[in-house]
Write a structure and sequence with these properties.
mainly alpha; 70% helix
């Protein structure tokens, strides 16, 4: 049996999961929640990377260049510090 879901369901579910992740990360960053464990931190990094790819695709799909001016090493160190 092949069950197919409409794309709107896929995007809504993804949005709900993203919001839950952001709440957990926000709680950690503001000191109101526990730190991320190693698996959660790895997943959070992948989530951030995927989010950047989606943003780049949206911009490039509109014929605009997408780029960040950020110190990635400093950002990664900050995330790792929050996880400790």
């Amino acid at each position: 049996m092949n069950i197919q879901l409409p794309h709107t369901h896929l995007f809504r579910t993804t949005q709900q999961l993203q919001e839950a992740c952001l709440e957990k990360i926000g709680a950690m960053v503001f000191g109101t929640g526990p730190s991320l464990d190693e698996d959660e931190l790895t997943a959070a990094k992948a989530f951030a990377n995927t989010t950047l790819k989606v943003l780049a695709m949206i911009f490039e799909g509109q014929g605009m260049h997408f780029g960040l001016r950020a110190n990635l090493e400093e950002m990664i160190q900050s995330i790792n510090d929050c996880a400790d």
